[in-house]
Amino acid sequence: MSLAFKLLGTDGLARRGRITTAHGTIETPAFMPVGTAGTVKAMTPQSVAETGTEIVLGNTFHLMLRPGAERVAKLGGLHKFMNWPGPIITDSGGFQVMSLAELRKLDPDGVTFRSPSDGSTHRLTPERSIEIQHLLDADITMSFDECTTWPVEEPAAASSMRLSMKWAERGRRAFVERQGYGLFGIVQGGVFPSLREESAKALTAIGFDGYAVGGLAVGEDKELMFATLDTTLPQLPADKPRYLMGVGRPADLVGAVRRGIDMFDCVMPTRAGRTAQAFTRRGELNLRNARHRDDPRPIDEHCACPACRNHSRAYLHHLIRSEEILGAMLLTWHNVHYYQDIMRGLRGAIEAGSLGHWIAAFEAEQERGDIPSL
Ligand SMILES: [Zn+2]
């Protein structure tokens, strides 16, 4: 039963693995584009797959409000509904609910909240979150947790984490085991090593198919994020996948893979693609900038995505300035393709035992900055 994870190789602390789900395999380290409301924004499912993406993330919070989990289930589940036949992971809804501030009320049993779109009242408990994710037919279900706020004092981080651990245990009991489906626990505890350790121990005692590190990339600086990974990851079982939630920029992915993370999700490549930002081997650039207006060269001559193969910076600049939808589509495609290029590079380097060299080359190229203007 449940998910299979095979550790294929290591290079230092970095891991090369494979997760087998009911809807296919995921080569790790893996990046999972965010498909908030049943769509990776500005991309068709076919174009998402062409980037090398093997798994997408759906948001419980958005899908439960619209179109509703029961409706998706009646229509055959999220895979069929959005025409994504591959693996799907769903978040628990906790992160979005907690960010509603005055629209939500937390109690020991769960959270009651008002929909930000129509004001209707809804409730999420650990059991209901697991049920919704089951209705959506997620291959990977996430525990319902309280994402601890930042900045936070240690006592508040401790009580928040302990509530999440109680919820994790309730979610584990509610989860229906099926072949190729799994449930992940989420380590919380802010940036306090002893709390992270306590959380990791509590979760491994319950037993999950994978372990996520939550509550990071919420405003703490990068060194603190990496330091928290350094103290947390050794506490987690080596034979289960590890997922760093909501991270991040290219250099964050590389730094976390080096420390032993297997999976990531982040809105950054898709959101940036809708705001004229491109991530490239040579850093970040903004296609809205006037210096691209007469530039016939692609974003990156080595990138195999359709934006780079078929279009100039000048054309992309024109699309963005004209607020043409195609501009957002092409830049999103490029960004997701580039993120998957990074993951392909990391996987190959771990297999070859050359991760150190790969990272040195990655960092050197990022530091060179964009090609000079014409
Ligand atoms: Zn490209």
Layout of helices and strands:
Layout: E1 4-11, E2 14-21, E3 24-28, E4 30-33, H1 45-50, E5 56-58, H2 60-65, H3 69-74, H4 78-82, E6 88-90, H5 94-98, E7 104-107, E8 110-114, E9 121-124, H6 126-136, E10 140-142, H7 154-174, E11 182-187, H8 193-206, E12 210-213, H9 222-232, E13 242-244, H10 250-258, E14 263-266, H11 268-273, E15 277-280, E16 283-286, H12 306-310, H13 313-321, H14 325-352, H15 355-368
Zinc ion (ZN) is lined by residues 299-300, 303, 305, 307-308, 334, 337.
What does this entry look like structurally?
The protein is an alpha/beta fold and 374 residues long. The protein is built from 15 helices and 16 strands. Helix 7 (154-174) links the parallel strand 10 (140-142) and strand 11. Helix 6 crosses helix 7. It binds zinc ion (ZN). Zinc ion is lined by residues 299-300, 303, 305, 307-308, 334, 337.
Widest sheet, order of strands: 4-14-13-12-11-10-6-5
Tell me how many strands there are.
16
Bound molecules: zinc ion
Radius of gyration: 20 Å
Oligomer: single chain
Q: Strand fraction band? A: 15-25%
Q: Give the low-confidence spans.
A: none
The percent of residues in helical segments reads: 40-55%
**Spatial gap, N to C terminus:** 58 Å
Largest sheet: 8 strands, parallel
Q: How does the overall form come out from the CA principal axes?
A: globular
Mean pLDDT score: 97
Computed structural class: alpha/beta
Annotation field: number of helices = 15
